[in-house]
């Protein structure tokens, strides 16, 4: 079985490629390296002892994509490729719509023309906005996200739902909560390109002395310690969910459900201060921080109800917050050893 993995050298993509290779799938990666590095490919090979096919180009170039499909009969696709920085998406909306939606549509054109099925889309808990009730299950009403990035995810979901219905193809929409951590080998992880926006990479760089202090965005939220709550899911657990979702798509017949939707999280919420504490305890390091005003656009609380994924995929997250945060620190050590 050959799977096209777009964005396969990126953070979640690279971990998923490792799990696919470990499960004997053939993998064809397309990644333009706009937010990743070529050495990740070599490290994937070192971890798995297998060599994925790799094409470095921009998915917006349909003619190159056509050549990949001509050269490799694929049985499915996991589409990670997208621009993902929320703040940047507000400043460059047209670029975000172009990159995230044109790439998706180009792949779907190939799928449509070639009669292909089994498409997995990287969606996000951002499609729920601030949900009224916790935990968030898949029937929770969607709210149009505030950010352009979030809108591209919601639009992507709608495009795929129409694609599935019109052409009778099977798709899976995976709504990730907050992925964290790195592979236990420390050879792949989240690459720090520029100043991190997300909490855990910022915590990592503060502990390492690259940043002076972590800004905690708000301690006046209606939560136990006043800081906002999220569901932090270990990236290797998340990667394994993709294999389970793919296997389910491949095994189901097209008269079963065409559209699978799963929340992928741990089911447990942690506050910003709890994450800082857990990082300090796990790694025996200090994370200096200061309390600041709330960050615009942030929600108070989001954590997943993961019963559906457990019931239908036989998957659930296995790794504790502390254990995940230990891998973050080991990854930082690895980056230092490489001068990245
Ligand atoms: P990432 O930036 O590490 O990986 C994305 C990869 O896609 C990068 O390697 C980049 O070079 C590549 N890429 C981007 N545009 C491309 C294009 N036009 N052609 C070819 N390659 C292209 O991001 P990630 O954290 O691994 O996220 C993967 C997916 O999951 C994204 O779709 C993201 O929106 C989604 N997601 C991420 C998170 C998160 O917090 N990391 C949460 C929810 C959803
Ligand atoms: C987590 C918490 C911050 C940085 C983003 C995207 C969302 C999804 C997941 C892709 C919040 C606080 C953060 C810092 C802080 N991605 N924080 N100081 O906000 O849940 O969501 O990533 O789909 O679309 O918006 O994640 O890691 O940015 O923040 O206090 O320096 O940490 O305020 O409460 P978030 P995050």
TrEMBL record:
Pathway in which this enzyme or protein is active:
Carbohydrate metabolism; galactose metabolism
- What's an example of a GO molecular-function annotation for this chain? UDP-glucose 4-epimerase activity
Q: Which Pfam families match?
A: GDP_Man_Dehyd (PF16363)
InterPro entries on file: NAD(P)-bd_dom, NAD(P)-bd_dom_sf, UDP_G4E
Q: Please indicate if the UniProt record lists NAD as a keyword.
A: yes
Q: Gene Ontology terms, cellular component aspect?
A: cytosol
Q: Which reaction does it catalyse?
A: UDP-alpha-D-glucose = UDP-alpha-D-galactose
Provide the NAD(P)-binding domain boundaries.
Answer: 4-326
Any single GO BP term: galactose metabolic process
- Family, similarity comment: Belongs to the NAD(P)-dependent epimerase/dehydratase family.
Family annotation (PANTHER family): UDP-GLUCOSE 4-EPIMERASE
Its name, as the record gives it, is UDP-glucose 4-epimerase
Q: Which organism is it from?
A: Chryseobacterium shandongense
